[in-house]
Amino acid sequence: MPRIELVTGDLTRERVDAIVNAANSSLLGGGGVDGAIHRAGGPEILAACRRLRETTLPDGLPTGEAVATTGGRLAARWVVHTVGPVWPGEGPEALRRRALLERAYRNSLALAAELGAASVALPAVSAGVYGWPADDVAEVAVGTAAAAAVDAAPGLVRFVLFSERMHATFAEAGARLGADV
Ligand code: AR6
To answer: Which ranges form a coiled coil (predicted)?
Structure first.
């Protein structure tokens, strides 16, 4: 199990080996943390995303998958782009898509480890524009990190939450799960 940390702050300022982007399938940018990462990291990241679209991902990145690019001007060497699901509202579809949210976190952690990252920072994927309830995002995020095998995640997994409220939500999920955060 990796060491799990919760902090309040701006993901783009993290001094870690890799940061995770809550992107969309187009990989061509957007608002929220995605927009902030492209602004802070510069045009090299978008150029790398365009190359991925022209080569291995002509139809875009499917929800739940992860892919890596350079970190451009960021302190982080890599950006791991993932796509979380859009909240469909309470019901059976939410259960199906929850598995995709889990996959997004699991695949992002695994890809960062595969790249050789010793540390990775992640936002609350799907908890913004995509509207997923924050307490459930927190449970999936912390639960997935806590369940990761040694070689399936970097040794340090840091969740960087944009508000004190989201930080508290993640801390509560950690306590509910009995995770050491
Ligand atoms: N550092 C850390 N967290 C941040 C930052 C930041 N600089 N900026 C925002 N957040 P969102 P999603 C938080 O909407 O829900 C984009 O347009 C934010 O407060 O960025 O997965 C993409 O292109 C929230 O808690 O991602 C997609 O189209 C969390 O990051 C779509 O939004 C995630 O919010 C993806 O939506």
So the answer is: none
